[in-house]
Write a structure and sequence with these properties.
This protein has 9 helices and 9 strands. It is α/β, with parallel strands linked by helices. The protein has one domain: Phosphatidylinositol (PI) phosphodiesterase (TIM Barrel), CATH 3.20.20.190. The longest helix is centred in the C-terminal third of the chain and has 20 residues. The C terminus is likely disordered. Pfam families: GDPD (PF03009). GO terms for molecular function: phosphoric diester hydrolase activity. This is GP-PDE domain-containing protein.
Length: 338
């Protein structure tokens, strides 16, 4: 199994302007170069030997006060104590987040993907290649808006999610025709419940985090409900499709138990790691994580080893390189006669 490497906030550290339209162009250039080299069968500097490298990106979605879905992690570009949810789109689009870059609408982002990335992906007949877009829906961080906006009513949580899903619907067909799967993930269980109810065919991922807080010496072991989300308020229990666990919290036990429940496992790296924990900024650290989590259990009955499915991190290119090199080396070792 080759780990799917996912660009955090589209292209990780390949561009400081994450979650922007320019980040799509950056990831396009990398993706096209990688697969061009691969198709030329040149062994020097290859990421794969004979496989198309799947495209996989992650970005964040929020909704403005007046109901426009945008791509924003938050609080980039805001200096007044208010985020996207407290502003109108006409004001959000004018905010310069650096060197003339701006927060795009979700529609603009998906349209740019269709115009820029899809032409660089393998044709539909390569049905074994599945590309992925992971949309993390952020829980709204609203405060009291300015008096000039007091006439606006904050959209409900369900309305915010509905607005995002309706934009995704517009691109469902073209993504399907080009072997691109849309996933939705969130820390918030209510968001995921709504997605599962409104769009039952969209894969959903539950994000888990249990990082050490400042001035704390110990952490409580991360507990995951793999089958259902804990439900103390009468909500319908829902099973997700993946567990997306912070690299600082995940253990081999988590991977093994998730696989037993038929769930995919994503590992994500925090942009700023806690002191003493693995960073994703060099080859040795990526090797350490993959070796720890990939070969969790080797069976003697021909069943392949189980491990993480997706690595979402900031060092996109380095992780992409090593995940395929690790798989190639591991396959050779497993096929060597004993």
């Amino acid at each position: 199994m080759v780990v799917e490497v996912q660009g955090h906030r589209i292209c990780g550290d390949l561009s400081p302007y994450f979650n922007t339209l320019s980040a799509i162009h950056v990831i396009h250039d990398v993706f096209r170069t990688v697969n061009k080299n691969n198709n030329n069968n040149d062994d020097e500097g290859h990421i794969t030997n004979n496989n198309i490298v799947p495209l996989s990106i992650e970005f964040d979605a929020r909704v403005t006060l007046d109901g426009v879905a945008v791509v924003s992690h938050g609080p980039e570009g805001f200096h007044d104590g208010h985020g996207v949810e407290d502003k109108l789109w006409k004001d959000v689009k004018c905010i310069d987040i650096g060197d003339g870059h701006h927060i795009p609408t979700l529609d603009d982002m998906l349209n740019t993907i269709t115009e820029v990335l899809i032409p660089a992906t393998p044709p539909p007949e390569n049905s074994h290649v599945l590309h992925a877009i992971n949309v993390e829906i952020k829980y709204p961080t609203t405060t009291r808006g300015s008096s000039s906006l007091s006439s606006y009513t904050q959209p409900s949580l369900n309305d915010r999610v509905r607005i995002i899903l309706e934009v995704l619907d517009e691109y469902k067909r073209i993504f399907y025709d080009n072997n691109i799967i849309i996933r939705v993930s969130s820390f918030n269980r209510d968001i995921l419940r709504y997605v599962r109810s409104a769009r039952p065919t969209i894969p959903i991922g539950t994000i888990y985090n249990n990082r050490v807080k400042e001035n704390e010496d110990k952490r409580i072991p991360l507990s995951i409900d793999y089958v259902t989300w804990m439900d103390d308020e009468g909500y319908t229990k829902v099973k997700g499709d993946s567990v997306n666990i912070c690299s600082e919290c995940i253990t081999r036990k988590h991977v093994k138990e998730a696989k037993k429940e038929g769930l995919d496992v994503m590992v994500w790296f925090p942009t700023i790691p806690s002191k003493g924990f693995i960073r994703d900024d060099n080859m040795d650290n990526i090797k350490l994580l993959l070796k720890k989590l990939m070969s969790v259990e080797v069976h003697n009955d021909g069943i392949p080893p189980i491990g993480v499915d997706v690595l979402c991190n900031n060092n996109y290119l380095l992780s992409l390189y090593y995940s395929y090199r690790y798989e190639s080396s591991r396959s050779l070792n497993q096929n060597t006669p004993r």
